[in-house]
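Q&A FORM
Asked by: J.P.
Topic: structure of Sulfite exporter TauE/SafE family protein

PROVIDED:
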Amino acid sequence: MNEISLLSAFIMGLVGSGHCLVMCGGVASSLQLVAHSLKSWLVSALYNLGRASSYMVAGALVATLGSTFAKQNTTFALSLKFLSGVFMLLVGIYVMRLASSLKWLESLAKTVIWQHLVKLNKHLLPVKSYPRVFVYGMLWGWLPCGLVYSALTWTLQASSSLHGAMIMLCFALGTLPAMLVVGQSAQQLNRFLNHNLVRLAFGSIFIWYGIYLLIIATDRLVH
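REPLIED BY: S.T.
REPLY: Here is the structure written out as tokens.
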């Protein structure tokens, strides 16, 4: 189960990297322009490292919370597995572009989390040093993205805080190709990931895995 979770998180990050380019790509590009006195490749690396670090911290915290309650209540543990299955289905629908199934999650995250964290932005600008680039990346790692928060729901059923952090690390690694490549290469990768057959193939993986989790959770709940 752990291996499937890590692979699914990586695939989600890879398929959703086109979405990442829209939401985070502009921030990363403008950061390189503002931090003109710094090496652009190092700015990009530190920004994405900071973003991945935030994902891992969030994954570890959510996994710790989920495992703590799950150990005390079997029904709660099965409910988390059921929730993960539901979000797998939502991600599959989102990836296949059959519906905007994660928009509500982005709106919720914006209201509950992002509108408060974004205020810290003023303390980091202008970005004139490498440590600030890293911290800036950590801040923008909390940007309300439906795919990120969907991956976080999977960490609720992680076996440990480390497993939760690893799930989010794999998600971050999946987003890296699109975030690091530039120019024509980025356009070609984006076209490939947005091809109908590719989206249908990857979306099907999430839907089938979601159904698998729902069957397991329902069977154990009934018996």
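FOLLOW-UP: The radius of gyration is 18 Å.
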